[in-house]
Amino acid sequence: MAARERLATDETLRGVLGAVERVAQAINRDSGNIYGFHIDGAESDPAAKVTYLKDAQGLTPAKMNYTTGVFDYGSWEDAFFMPRPCMLKSDGNVDYYLDPDNYAKKEDGSSSDVADINYGGNAMMEWGQNGKKIWMKIQPDSNHLGASVFIADYQVDATYHDWSFHNCQGVSVDHFYTPIFNGAKDSNNKLRSISGQQVSNKTTANQEIAYARANNPGSNVLWDIEHYSDITLINMLLILMAKTVDLPTAFGQGLRDSGSEAINNAFRTGVHNTKGLFYGTNSGAAATYSNAVKVFGMENWWGFQWRRYVGHVLLDGVHKVKNTYLTEDGSTATDYVVNGEPTGAGFKSIPATVLSGTSGNYIKYEWFDDDGMVPCGELTGSDTTYYCDGVWYNNSGVRVPCRGGGSVSGAGVGAFYLSLYSAASYSGWYVGAAVSCKPLA
Asked: CA–CA distance from 429 to each of 82, 128, 269, 347, 426 (Å)?
């Protein structure tokens, strides 16, 4: 075929493919969902702080009914972003799905391996259902202290991202997986998500990352500790469902008071295996394990134990973040760590976010940009105003974050609670990590 004929054929093919893509986008626009909310940075009332936008307008928020002990989904029970509990093999393939109301059973009612420490994989929540990923856009206000956040089941335009679905090869896959349980270290020094286990603690960040990555069947990093991008997305989904930033009041206080090393060591994962995807109480007593919070099928999303994650460090007072393993998010580093240690090298800087005042107090302001939200400015909030969660920080050197708060953290415990105070080498009985997975396909 002559070069001119080949060129004409190529152009025709591109035109046909472009037309098909435009039709698909039009179908998505007609049938897809875009849920939105706005966070008012100046508003101190955590409920009044959030206003529904787009398809969320007129919907009923979700909340835990502390009188009946039953979660009220409001308008959100069948939302496209709801995850599914499963047993995920080490190679990143789903073995089978779990009964969401009883993890001891498979969907078909037969017994599951959720409590088998010798199982060749982990109990995980699968995100991305029925061919729909979760696309998010964060549109900051002019002062970056508030934002409009949009959650869609299709890519509305190039400003919507699906970072949580990106694997270590830079490929956007159909699913990503988060831990049902706090991390427990097995006899092979693998960090696991299995029911009935004592939670791992007294480990450094480097050890936790190594233990999580020991799940990988080869050199590709499918398994790791939790990711900044996943945590950001899940917290935004919780705000969307609850229409407030006071998430402990909406979903449950979590284990936050009167904790001790003995109490933490006596805890066994799986206390809420029969409580559905959401459960909580309005008590924070750590000695009563039934007070543990459960959201999106996961135990202790906040409270009980501080959990380290990758993709975020505080470097000499500047927040440094990375949403993907490779560089498609605009970062310049491959991997979240250098020689197994989180340093922030090659991460993106979030400007104008230096924390000031005391080294620990309640969050008043969060700084929003396309890469997420981080606490900033003076910490002059409270446990009932603004974000209702606390922060500890140290503006010198590399500080590796822990999230959620521990059983001794008091009322500051919550989804936004961060400790940005310690180096990677710190270890303690109230600090640990949990596994996550981004499969190759």
From this structure: 32, 34, 16, 29, 11
